[in-house]
Each structure stands twice: as C-alpha cells, then as structure tokens.
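Appendix B. Chain record.
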Amino acid sequence: MTSVLDRDLLVVTGKGGVGKTTLATALGLLAAERGRRTIVVEVGAQGRLPALFGLPQPSPGAEIELQRGLWNLSLDPDRALLEWLQALGGRVSGRILASSGTFQYFAAAAPGAKELVSMVKIWELTQGKRWRGRGRGYDLVVLDAPATGHALGMLDSPRTFGAIARVGPIAGQAQRLRELLEDPARSGYLAIAQGTEMAITETLELQDRLHRQLGRDLHAVVVNGVLPQRFSAPELARLALLAPASENHKGSDGPTGEPTPRSKAKAQRAGDGSARGRKAAPAAASTPDELTRSAVVAARAAHDRARFQHNQLARLRRRKFDVLRVPFQFTAELDLPAIRRIAQQLKRTV
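Structure tokens predicted for this chain:
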C-alpha cells in the first residue's frame, strides 16, 4: 500500500483538543526522515512549532526551517490574499485591490472566500514553480487543519466559491484546487481522535461528510492517548478477592473519567465544610488493608478506562477504518523528544 506520506498534501483534522498539532508534527518529522521536503502548515496566527524546536518566532506568514528537510508556516489569510492578488494581477494592482474597501467587504462577505484563500496558499506550496520566484515547492504539505467543522468548510471552499465565480482566473484556480483535493494520488486525509464517545462520533461524521463533499475517504484514523490494558481476566478475578466489589468503586470516578454522582456529592460536602471554616481533621496513617483497597480501586479504574477506550475503537473497526493507535504519553509535557517518539511509533504504519 502506498504510504499516506507519498502524497502532495496530507490533511490532518479531528475534534478540537485531540492532539492534531502533535500528530501533524510527528508526521512531518517522519516524512522529513524519509527524505521528503516537508512543511507543516498551521492555520491562523498560532506559530507553536518554532518554539517547540527552540527557534525564535518568525515574521507573520514566513516559512521557517525547523530542521533539515522540515519547515513550518503559520498561515495568515490576509497575507495569503495579497500574494494571490499579486500573482493574478501584478504587484502594484494586487496591493491596490487588496487595500480597496469594497474588495475587503466582498472578501469578508463572500461565502468561503477566506477559506478559499487559505487553501489556494496551500495549493501553491505544493507547486514546483511557485508565485513570483518564491523558491521551491514542497514534496509534502501537512495541513494541521482546524477542528472538523471548520476544516470541512475549508475543503468545500472551491465548490462554494466556484458557484459565485464561474469564469475567469478565480474560477480556474478553484477548479485546480478541487482537482488536488479529489485526487487520491495527490492528497490524503487523516482523522485524529481520542478514545471518547464524542471524538469517535465526530470522526464518523467527518468520514460521511468528506465522502459527500469530495468523494473521498479517510486514509486512516489515528487514535491518540490510548491506555494499555494491563490486566487479564484471571488477574482481575484475583484483584476482586483483595477487596469487595462494593469497595472497588465506592466514591470513584466512572469508566469515562467523569465523577459519579456519589463522588460529586462527596466533593461538594467537603467543599461546604471548608467554606464554613471547619478545620480539616488530621490525616490518619493508612493501614495495610486501606492501602490494598486504594490500590485495587486505582487498578480497576485504570482497567475500566482502558476498556472504555477500546470499546470506542471497536466502533471504528466496525466501519472498516484503518485504526492507528498512539499510546498515552506518561509525561507532564509533550516536548520535542516525546513527539519524536510518537513519530517512531507511527513509522511502520504510515
């Protein structure tokens, strides 16, 4: 199977907060390691990657080399619009048009205009001959796209804006962009998710809408932060003998990590006592039985959470998705070495 990194464009999206930037960076590192000239594009004035690589913040819209073979761009739609207008009508006329109040109003009000401008810039990065002698294009553009809904709006912008501009250079550019997005040999789509019900449901919706809009399917789903299943059935049976089942879950959080009504009430009572100014009772020394019960509760909670995650992954497999798992990183902060480890974990699967 051809690697997803062999395309011109790789779109990485998913529910907000699931680790899209982390995985986009890991994929960029992996592509650069394979000798592909790669750029990771962040949408909006984010610019998180230079700091991650220990580099100063570049000027807005500048392409910065993070390491050998890997670049980064924090995409600014206004700057991308000016570049596009200069490519269409020359440097002077482009500046005049970009500064026109009427045109700015049109660009802000036209459906899909900002999204189209951003996508045109991404298309330009894939070209061997770029606008106005800007240098080489890239073998691979990894788009660290916004969350699912906004990302789908960007991907649909050539069709949306093409309904307004039916002829002329803008219509031609929208058509070229749509050809890139619809061609399986040139573009690929990865969903990033976590093992939660909401994130998996949003991934399934992403697949359905991607197929309707572009006739494309997700290449794979990368599930981030997967917990290991540490205990077998016999081991769980032995744990149950160490502490009664009623003790295992008393006052603990549920399998999804959300507090149970009982634990919420207990926390509320503790908070009320504190608010009334009562002094906290001194902590008593834990007995061996209490330590055993606490260890069993922690073990059962970890097992239940991992089992819940794996049940959610089963929803993806029932839809025949290629599911790539990234283990939970037991670290306080995801620094560059941690992202490099994730890249190596993905090495055999992408």
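Further analysis of this model is presented in Appendix C.
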